[in-house]
Design brief:
The protein starts with a helix and ends with a strand. The relative contact order is 0.22. α1 crosses α2. The chain has six helices and twelve strands. The chain has one domain: Fumarylacetoacetate hydrolase, domain 2 (Alpha-Beta Complex), CATH 3.90.850. β7 and β8 form a beta hairpin. With 259 residues, it is α+β, with helices and mostly antiparallel strands.
């Protein structure tokens, strides 16, 4: 057992260093028979390293919640990752392209919780725990060479989550089931879609989030932000790019890409 734990800890160090120093690494599954459970253990150990450096947990993200995303990365399972305060980018702020390896962006819906959620909950119970909703952008960045990976690889890499931007919070009773949206780069639409692409309704992603984190002894905490998952395929980021998402009834969210 100690040997297994030590091995996973070394993978966590490699993944953490790759994210922290923005350099590409070989896929773990090229040389290891890494299971999904192993991968989530690596993710947890990697995020523990961030916590030791002073980062604070502020939420979680859901991944692969739309057919577009599943097709883009060639997998068919939902995944999740952890969000920290260091990952949050100020709305309208600027990120450094050099801080990432293969950065891409996708439009999302964000939930702000006012009460904990854990285990199997209904959609009504999930919605009752929501304080507000907002348009959001997630910056994803696989640290693996050539943006290629198997499912355990991406999970170990915090499900590719690298940053997020949240727009203005709105009241939670708005119907977010089928909101039209557009992702724009330098003012030009590069992706269009609907929040319905997120499991048919984004609240289903919140329900799934409570169930998935419970499998690892966690719960969604009051005050946390939960990103429901990309509603479209992701778009590559380049220096100088202005990024904005417009979401029907919820407004816009944006950031800039520096060098």
């Amino acid at each position: 057992m100690n040997g297994i734990v030590t091995g996973l800890g070394e993978l966590a160090r490699i993944a953490d260093d790759a994210a922290r120093l923005a350099h590409a690494i070989p896929q773990f599954t090229d040389r290891l028979a890494l299971t999904v459970d192993d991968a989530y253990a690596v993710q947890a150990l990697s995020l523990a390293r961030r916590a030791a450096r002073g980062e604070r947990r502020v939420g979680m993200k859901m991944g692969l919640t739309s057919r577009a995303k599943m097709a883009q990365v060639g997998v068919d399972e939902m995944i999740w990752g952890r969000l920290t305060d260091a990952m949050q980018v100020e709305e309208g702020g600027t990120i450094r392209r050099s801080a990432y390896v293969h950065p891409r962006v996708e439009p999302e819906l964000a939930f702000l919780l006012k009460a904990p959620l854990a285990g199997r909950v209904t959609a009504a119970q999930a919605l009752a725990a929501v304080e507000a909703v907002a348009p959001a952008l997630e910056i994803i960045d696989s640290r693996y060479r050539d943006f290629k990976f198997a499912l355990p690889d991406v999970i170990a890499d915090n499900s590719s989550s690298s940053g997020f931007v949240v727009g203005q919070w709105r009241r939670p009773d708005l119907d977010v089931g089928n909101l039209g949206l557009a992702l724009l780069a330098d003012g030009q639409p590069v992706q269009v879609g609907s929040t319905a692409a997120i499991l048919g309704h984004p609240v289903r992603s919140l329900v799934a989030a409570a169930r998935l984190v419970a499998q690892w002894g966690e719960r969604l905490e009051a005050g946390w932000i939960v990103l429901a998952g990309g509603a479209t395929a992701a778009h590559p980021l380049a220096p100088g790019m202005a990024v904005r998402a417009d979401m029907q009834g919820l407004g816009s969210v944006s950031f800039q890409v520096g060098e």
